[in-house]
Design goal:
Structural class: alpha/beta
Strand order of the largest sheet: 1-2-3-4-5-6-9-10
Number of strands: 10
CATH architecture of the largest domain: Alpha-Beta Barrel
Largest sheet: 8 strands, parallel, barrel
Oligomer: single chain
Low-confidence stretches: none
Order of helices and strands: HEHEHEHEHEHHEEEHEHEHHHHHHH
């Protein structure tokens, strides 16, 4: 497992890490695989993928088949894929009694392991329906973590392949719902207590060998993004946390690293936040490129033949507001702008809608039959992408979309080191 190589490299003083692609979007996965950076870590959250289908409609087995199918299409070696399960635990069922939520969580874990996921983030940080009020007790979450780890160990045919990520202090998945002025950084005491409590809980469940395969701890390094803001990484604020993990046989996993500068990403890797998770920034890049193409369509295609992709997306989002309503605030005019351009990228939940898919296919079809080169280069933001990806002539719509996603990935690839 490549996580082991990262740990060995760090003991030798090499700042090595890995990018974690947290997206099920086919263009994002295709863009990543076409980069042929190996190994490639792709993760699915419990909300995206679970035994009931999640919001993607896929079970863990379905997701593995879906990812490996794209790998075969792109020529990416399947054996170089690392599949991770993110936030695996009772998050989806937190409004149910603990006994029920944990039983469903056990099934979730078993299905992920059986499907071939080998990087398992055990997240039991949430208060369940009949738990005492207030933040969950650290020892309680540790016991639940160990119970789920035991399920994974009992399910795996070869437990040597499994690597665990623990930690309950995680940023809100998908970005913050409210604007944040200052960063929250996990305290040294909290990190130490999480490790100590989890270690004891693993031993209580006779999981000593499994504990040796706990590769990473999720903490909050103080990075975050939301609707219209990005909190940059501050190495000074995380200095004590960075120093602490040097004495532990594990690394940190950093969530919500989307939209950080390349310099900040490099500092995160240097400070032992070696697993850099990114998702919304990649689908935001997809959206951005599609909207560039929509501008070109207005320039080149007659009104009666246009896809009207932007209008179709907004109409679908208004009809089904459950994926964005809690995240966006403001006047109707402000909400309209946020729906299509927010950094939270709640629009990512709507690309699979049949009406949106039909409009997108029409957009790509319209522009695949014409020369878009001169029209697209009029858009200032596109010029750097075209130059970096060397797309100077006969630009194709899909090429531009993939190039814009890859532009985000390149910032990560250049700081993690060690990957071919």
């Amino acid at each position: 497992m490549y996580l082991d190589q990262i740990l060995v490299a760090r003991k030798e003083g090499e700042a090595r890490g890995i990018v974690s692609i947290c997206s099920a979007h086919p263009s994002v996965l295709k863009a990543a695989m076409l980069r042929h950076v190996e190994p490639l870590l792709i993760e699915a959250t419990c909300n995206q993928v679970n035994q009931f289908g999640g919001y993607t409609g896929m079970t863990p087995t379905d997701f593995v088949a879906y990812v490996t199918g794209i790998a075969k299409q792109t020529g990416f070696p399947v054996e170089q894929l690392i599949l991770g399960g993110d936030h695996l635990g009772p998050s989806v069922w937190k409004n149910e009694p603990a006994a029920v939520a944990m039983e469903k969580s056990k099934i979730l874990i078993r299905e992920f392991v059986r499907a071939g996921f080998t990087k398992i983030h055990l997240d039991t940080s949430m208060r369940l329906k009949d738990d005492p009020k207030g933040a969950p007790d650290v020892d309680l979450t540790a016991r639940r973590t160990a119970i789920l780890a035991k399920c994974a160990e009992e399910t795996a045919g070869d437990t040597r392949q499994l690597r665990y990520v623990i930690g309950t202090e995680v940023p809100a998945p998908g970005g913050a719902q409210d604007h944040m002025e200052g960063a929250h950084v996990t305290t040294l005491e909290s990190a130490r207590q999480t490790i100590d409590s989890a270690h004891q809980a693993f031993l209580d469940e006779h999981l000593g060998s499994a504990w040796e395969r706990v590769s990473a701890l999720v903490v909050d390094p103080g990075v975050e993004f939301g609707d219209g803001f990005v909190l940059p990484y501050d190495p000074h604020a995380a200095a004590a946390l960075s120093k602490f993990i040097e004495s532990q046989p594990m690394i940190y996993e950093a969530h919500s690293t989307d939209y950080q500068t390349q310099a900040a990403l490099r500092e995160l890797v240097r400070d032992h936040f070696a697993i850099l998770k990114v998702g919304p920034a990649l689908t935001h890049a997809f959206r951005e490129a599609v909207f560039w193409l929509a501008v070109v369509e207005e320039d080149l295609i007659p009104v009666h033949s246009r896809s009207n992709i932007v209008a179709v997306l907004d109409a679908v989002m208004l009809e089904h507001p459950q994926h964005w309503r809690a995240y966006y605030h403001g006047t109707e005019e402000q909400l309209a702008q946020k729906r299509i351009s927010s950094l939270s990228d709640r629009i990512r939940y709507y690309w699979s809608d049949p009406r949106v898919q039909q409009a997108l296919n029409k957009l790509l079809g319209n522009l695949s039959n014409v020369d878009i080169s001169s029209a697209i280069t009029k858009i200032k933001d596109v010029q750097a992408i075209i130059s970096m990806q060397k797309l100077y002539t006969s630009i194709k719509p899909e090429q531009l979309i993939l190039a814009n996603i890859q532009n985000v990935l390149i910032s990560y690839e250049q700081v993690v080191g060690g990957q071919a």
